[in-house]
Design a protein that fits this description.
7 helices, disordered N terminus
């Protein structure tokens, strides 16, 4: 009897220990979906506020953690944490992007995934706008990798998509008037001289080179002419000297009586 009692108590201890271990440990839980950072939410609210004022349409976002069935982040041009559809007086027309992310546990064979949708108030056709976000790299992978950044980025693109669908006019570009009249610049000359100064400079250089070559040719020609004239003068002088010399040594006529025999 005592042996059976001890064995029974040992079995109860083992069962209790196993129950405590598995009861407290439980299945491995998935990581929570991180919300956007405070700077991301603040910057997004500022962008949406400017767009809402210029387009007369309110814009917002929602991010949910499907595994824990809770809302991670919500906001709009009305402020961080304020849903876009919470004030029909201020926002009768609105468009909102909603992202849902599912992080599975490490022990699960399922992959992490996300879904995206765009909702709008009555009268605004936002059907299929979530597909347009894919053109900006905001697909399922982007929401799984960084859901906080992706949802804020998607919210800031909503005003652009609204303009593409002609749901709103683009934001006007505000240009400031000049404080004083701008003094016109003085006339800088003909545009022909400014645009073609290189050609004129080249032509002028060619003219200078040509003139220099012509001048050198004239000088050389004059020198050659002088040399020819000097040579002709010397030749004429030599010929005159030769003529005089020949005349001096030529035999003259014979004079006197001839003597005859016995004379």
């Amino acid at each position: 009897m005592r042996g059976s009692y001890v064995a029974g108590r040992a079995a109860l201890v083992m069962v209790g220990t196993a129950t405590a271990v598995f009861g407290f440990a439980g299945p491995a839980r998935a990581e929570p979906v991180p919300p956007p950072t405070l700077p991301e939410r603040t910057d997004t609210v500022a962008v949406l506020d400017r767009s809402a004022q210029s387009q007369n349409i309110c814009f917002g976002w929602r991010l949910a953690d499907r595994y824990r069935d809770r809302e991670v982040s919500v906001g709009s041009n009305l402020g961080d944490g304020v849903p876009v559809d919470s004030d029909p007086q201020r926002c009768p027309r609105w468009i909102e992007v909603a992202g849902t992310v599912v992080y599975t546990s490490e022990s699960s064979e399922s992959e992490d995934y996300a879904s995206l949708s765009v909702e709008s108030s009555a009268g605004l056709d936002a059907f299929g706008m979530e597909a347009d976000l894919g053109r900006f790299g905001l697909d399922e992978k982007a929401f799984v990798d960084d859901p906080g950044w992706a949802i804020c980025r998607a919210a800031t693109i909503l005003p652009l998509l609204a303009v593409e669908r002609e749901l709103a006019s683009p934001a006007p570009v505000i240009t400031a008037e000049p404080a004083a009249a701008v003094t016109p610049l003085a006339d800088a000359g003909s545009d022909m001289w400014r645009d073609r100064w290189g050609y004129f400079a080249g032509a002028l250089g060619l003219l200078l080179v040509t003139g220099l070559l012509v001048a050198i040719g004239l000088v050389q020609r004059r020198k050659e002419h002088n040399r020819d004239a000097e040579a002709q003068r010397r030749l004429a002088a030599r010929q005159r000297r030769q003529q005089r010399t020949a005349k001096d040594f030529a035999p003259g006529p014979r004079t006197g009586r001839r003597t005859g025999d016995g004379g």
